[in-house]
Every structure is written in structure tokens, then in C-alpha cells.
Specification:
The protein is of the alpha/beta class and 461 residues long. The chain contains twelve helices and 31 strands. Helix 3 runs parallel beside helix 10. The longest helix is centred in the middle third of the chain and has 17 residues. It is globular, with a radius of gyration of 23 Å.
Length: 461
């Protein structure tokens, strides 16, 4: 049997947090865990945690606004915890929940392959999914949500998990044809179709921009990435790791224009033909992909008393409760406290956070008084390589690097006030997971420990 590393299992499980796997056979060999089971056997042996059945006499209604990971995990947790009332999940999209992370990492995947659950799952467990239905307002006093089609739905408990939307480009020519954002499977398919064999310009060098650039690097005829920063991923991963990712893509003919801005898009016959930089340089473009950040989908709350921050993120406590009774929020649309990182409040738009939020929200909708206790984790995939990250590195002032950045085998600790606040790695598994476990235990990791060759502190979680 061919061993698979624990990191590979992590990739397998990353989109299946709510699935139960059987006991795993592992061994430690040559400094790494080996999983002595085939991934295809694990896929076939996934088991679902027992879920209660819908009871028609229970008229209590849980209304979940949003069709992403947070809403799905909330719905499943409600059933797993014995809730037998009505669960309604409402999404403006055409689809049942799907793995949105795959849209930029694997743009050629079929829609069915990225569904998190098939339609028959929802029918079997009495979870209503209303697609192509957009919420326009919420009446928190009357406990009703109103929709664009004029309908409304009352609720006993409300979850706001409406996520975020791509920030729109604001410059002359931004309304030309073939200027694209990426949010849905249809967007991914369209961009892939338009970009194949064509000249592509990508605006933004963070997750969406870099993953799309990597995926299209061997499909487009030319590829340019434009960003205001000095390095890709600079705000999160910093210049060292950002520099590594830039070289990876440069080796695949991707050209970078850093510390640059778009001033104008020009076209012919209403189709984009070039992107003009603020410097005056012109980049030929048959397709422009805009990945310049996102905004919270919370505009429908503007006439409510639900507290939000300046960016429109819904403020919640550790129980995912808003300032309004019976109203909870989860996922990308929220700003929440990070107790393991000094209690600061943050908006973190990562897949794992959305799942954790949905789980905790469900427990507290059922009055179980369970507080959020999690270490943020994400991964990005570029050219078949996965960079993993755990923690919250905002405001870091120093780094400690193990391994070799140039050889694409490294572990980077992000330091603030002489303590580790985050960690990133490439080809250095399972170190990020081990560091995350220590962080989760509440134990601080000092800069001296990060610098030391003695890693016994990792076993103190």
C-alpha cells in the first residue's frame, strides 16, 4: 500500500470538516507522519455524523441567509445536535453549497465535483435550500426576512452568513466586455474559456489573483499581474514568502508589474484590448481578471440596529451572537474576537473560519453556550505546491525562517512582542499543524523557541 502524508490527508479533509472518517493507521518515519491508507479508500469510507429527522409538528424555524460553508455547517450541526424543526437556507446563487476555494485553484472542475452536498442530501435531512432568492431587508423586531421577489419568511433564530463579493474596479473602461471578477462557478468557466490562448492581465496579487495566474499560466498566451504592493501576498505572508511565490510564477512566464496601478482600460468594439498603467505603460489584454479585494454582503442590514464595523462587517461575540437577540452571524461577513491573539476583533475570510463559525453559531442557536476557540488556518495552491498558514500575523515585526526559501522548503514564524503569532510553510509538513495545536492550547511560543533547533515545545500542546 502506498503511504500518503498527513498533509495530503489535510487536503482531503479541508473541505469535509463535517464528515466523520474512520480511525486512521499512521506511523512516524524519517521525521514525518505517514498515513498507511489510500486516499480513495478514505473517500469511500467517509461517514456522516448521525442527524435527527425533521418533525413536522415542530414549527420552530432556523433561517440561514447564505449558501456557503458557514450556513451549510450550521444547518448540519443543528440536525446533528437534535434539532427537529424547520431549517431554511437561502442563497442568491443558482446552486446548492459548493467548495468556493476551488474556483481559483482548479478552474476546470465540473460543478458536480465541487458540490459539498448533493440535492438528495438536503431532502433526506429536511433542510430546505432556496436558490436564486436574494434577501433585501430584515425586520428584527417582527423576526422576518424580506426577499427581492416580494416574499418574506419569519424566523425564530436568524443566521447571517451572506459572505462577501468582489470589489469592483473603478476606472475608465472598467465596464468593457471581458473584464471579469471571480465569484461563481460560471465566472470560473467563463474566465477559463476567455483566457485560453489569449493575453491575460490580472489586477491584484493576493489569493484570487495569484491562484488564477498560476492556473492559467500554461493556458494563456501571455500573463501579466499588476498590484500596488512590492510583493504578492505581502499583507498576509510578507515579502519573504511573497517573493518566493513571485519567482515561482515568473518561472512560468508570468510577468509582474508591482508597485503599479491601473489608470484606464481601453478597448475596441466594446471589448477590452489593453490595460494602461498609471506610469503610462500599456499592457495588451484580451481578458482582465479583477482580484482587488472583497466587500461584505451586508447592505440589506442598513436599516436595522445590527451593529457593523466601518467596512460593513457584522460584529459578533465569541458565541457568534450579534447585538440583537435571536440574530447570529458567521463567516466572511463578520468581524469577531480572536481570544487566542489578544482579543482583537478581526474579519478573516478563510474557509476554515467559516466552518468553525457555522458550527459554533448552531450550538448557540440551540442555547448550548459554546464559545469560539480556534486558530485561523488557510492554504493557497500554486503550480501544484501548497503554502499553509496558521495564526493571525497582523502587525508582526520580525520573522524566523527555517529551511531554505530558494529551495521551496521552508517554515516561517511571524513574531510580535517576542512571541510567535503566525506560521507559514511550504514542503515542511506537518509543522504548521503542530504549531497550530500549541497555539490552540493557549501556550505562547517565544521567538527563542522558534529559533531553537530543539522542537520539544511542540509536544507541550
Amino acid at each position: 500500500m502506498v503511504p500518503a502524508s498527513i498533509s495530503e490527508l489535510g487536503t482531503l479533509r479541508s473541505t469535509q470538516l463535517w464528515t466523520v472518517f474512520p480511525a486512521l493507521r499512521c506511523e512516524w518515519k524519517m521525521g514525518r507522519y505517514l498515513l498507511l491508507q489510500k486516499k480513495k479508500d478514505l473517500e469511500s469510507d467517509r461517514r456522516l455524523k448521525a442527524m435527527s429527522e425533521r418533525c413536522r409538528s415542530n414549527e420552530t424555524t432556523m433561517l440561514l441567509l447564505g449558501g456557503g460553508a458557514a450556513a451549510l455547517v450550521c444547518a448540519e450541526t443543528l440536525r446533528q445536535e437534535g434539532f427537529t424543526g424547520r431549517i431554511i437556507m437561502v442563497t442568491k446563487e443558482k446552486h446548492v453549497p459548493y467548495d468556493r476555494t476551488q474556483l481559483s485553484k482548479a478552474m476546470d472542475k465540473t460543478l458536480e465535483s465541487i458540490y459539498l452536498r448533493q440535492q438528495d442530501f438536503f431532502e433526506a435531512h429536511g433542510i430546505e435550500v432556496w436558490t436564486e432568492k436574494e434577501v433585501v431587508s430584515v425586520d428584527t423586531q417582527g423576526q422576518k426576512a424580506h426577499f427581492q421577489d416580494g416574499a418574506f419568511q419569519r424566523y425564530d433564530q436568524l443566521l447571517i452568513a451572506t459572505g462577501s463579493s468582489p470589489r469592483q474596479l473603478q476606472c475608465p473602461g472598467s465596464d468593457l466586455q471581458n473584464v471579469c471578477s471571480l465569484q461563481t462557478p460560471e465566472d470560473a468557466n467563463r474566465i477559463l474559456h476567455l483566457a485560453t490562448g489569449k493575453r491575460v492581465v490580472i489586477l491584484g496579487a493576493s489569493f484570487i489573483g495569484m491562484e488564477v495566474a498560476a492556473f492559467l499560466s500554461d493556458k494563456a498566451s501571455t500573463m501579466c499581474v499588476v498590484d500596488r504592493g512590492e510583493f504578492p501576498f505581502q499583507a498576509v505572508l510578507g515579502p519573504q514568502v511573497g517573493g518566493v511565490t513571485m519567482k515561482m510564477l515568473q518561472n512560468k512566464r508570468v510577468k509582474f508589474y508591482m508597485k503599479a496601478e491601473i489608470s484606464e482600460l481601453r478597448g475596441e468594439n466594446r471589448k477590452v484590448t489593453e490595460a494602461v498603467l498609471a506610469s503610462g505603460e500599456k499592457l495588451p489584454a484580451d481578458v482582465v481578471v479583477v482580484g482587488i479585494g472583497v466587500t461584505s454582503n451586508s447592505g440589506f442590514l442598513k436599516d436595522t440596529s445590527i451593529a457593523m464595523d466601518r467596512g460593513g462587517a457584522v460584529l459578533v461575540d465569541l458565541f457568534m451572537q450579534t447585538n440583537i437577540p435571536r440574530v447570529f452571524a458567521a463567516g466572511d461577513v463578520t468581524s469577531f474576537p480572536l481570544t487566542l491573539f489578544g482579543g482583537t476583533t478581526a474579519t478573516i475570510r478563510h474557509w476554515q473560519i467559516a466552518q468553525a463559525h457555522g458550527h459554533i453559531a448552531a450550538l448557540n442557536m440551540l442555547k448550548q453556550q459554546k464559545a469560539l476557540h480556534t486558530v485561523p488556518f488557510f492554504w493557497t495552491s500554486l503550480l501544484g505546491k501548497s503554502i499553509r498558514y496558521a495564526g493571525y500575523g497582523n502587525g508582526y515585526t520580525d520573522t524566523v525562517v527555517k529551511g531554505n526559501l530558494e529551495q521551496l522548503k521552508f517554515l516561517v514564524f511571524y513574531i510580535k512582542d517576542d512571541n510567535v503569532i503566525a506560521v507559514a510553510s511550504l514542503n515542511f509538513d506537518p509543522m504548521v499543524s503542530l504549531v497550530a495545536e500549541v497555539m490552540h492550547s493557549g501556550r505562547q511560543i517565544s521567538k527563542a523557541e522558534a529559533q531553537s533547533s530543539d522542537i520539544t515545545w511542540m509536544k507541550q500542546a
